[in-house]
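Protein in question reproduced for absentees:

***
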Amino acid sequence: MSITITAFERSPDGGKGLARDTRVRWALEEVGQPYDVRYVSFQAMKESAHLRLHPFGQIPTYEEGDLVLFETGAIVFHLAEQHPGLLPTDAHARASAIAWMFAALNSVEPSILELVVAKFQEGDKPWSKERVPLVMDRIRLRLGQLSTRLGDADWLDGAFSAGDLMMVSVLLRTRPSGILDEFPNLAAYVARGEARPAYQRAFAAQWAANTGQLAG
C-alpha cells in the first residue's frame, strides 16, 4: 500500500528542516519506504477534510491504506515497528531506543517550543523580555543533562536509532537561538544526524517543496 503524508504548502521556516514533516520524511528515508506528499495550506488545515486526519489541525499526517496516523512520535514509532533500521532487535536496546523517543518529545522539546512561542507569538507582550531568559535557562538545564549523558558517544545508546532521529530533530529547533553552540558535543551530535544520507534526502525534498524546485 502506498504511503501519503501531509506537509505545509509553504513551511514557516522556508524549508530549512524545522517543520515536523521532516522527521517523518527522514524516518521513511531511513527505512527505504517511498511516499507521496500532499501539501496543505494553512486554511485547508482547519477545514473538515484535514481535521478528519488530524483533529488538532496540524501536520504531518500519515495515510497507508485504511491506517491514518497523526503525531510524529506515533508515526515514526509505527515505521520503526514495521520496517528494520530504526529499532534494535535486542529487546532491552529496543526499549531504550523507544525511551529516548519519548524523552525527546516529553523532556526536551517542550521548553524549546516554549521559547518559540515566547519569541515569535508573544514577543510583543510586556512580559516577553522577562520570560525569554527564564525559558532559555530551562533549555540549558535540559541540554546540559543531555550533554552529560551523551558524553563523547556518537549516538545516545549504541547504534543510531529512532531515539536519535527524534532527538536530533528536536535539537535542530534550538539552532536559531544559538543555544546549541553552548554544548559542543550536542552540536556535533546534531551534525552527525544531518550528515546521514537519509536526512539529506528528506531535507532536500522539503527544501525543494518550499523553493519551487519540485518537478512537474
